[in-house]
Design goal:
single chain; mainly beta; elongated
């Protein structure tokens, strides 16, 4: 049994928009920042309690 605070909100899986860029260097190093914002367009249909929320991701690596 899940606690009330652990239930999955249907709005967690929805429409997101944002910006991202992949920056590669000749040596193989790369950086990929992403800034995404959830847009609650489907809020009335899905019954979600979530409004706008953001997600910031940064991937750093080296390709061989």
């Amino acid at each position: 049994e899940r606690l009330a605070s652990m239930r999955v909100d249907p709005g967690r899986y929805g429409i997101m928009m944002g910006l991202g860029n992949d920056i590669y260097v000749k040596s193989g190093f790369f950086v990929s920042p992403r800034l995404m914002i959830a847009v609650p367009i489907l809020k009335p249909a899905s019954g979600t309690e979530l409004g706008f929320w953001g997600d910031l991701t940064l991937a750093i690596g080296h390709s061989f």
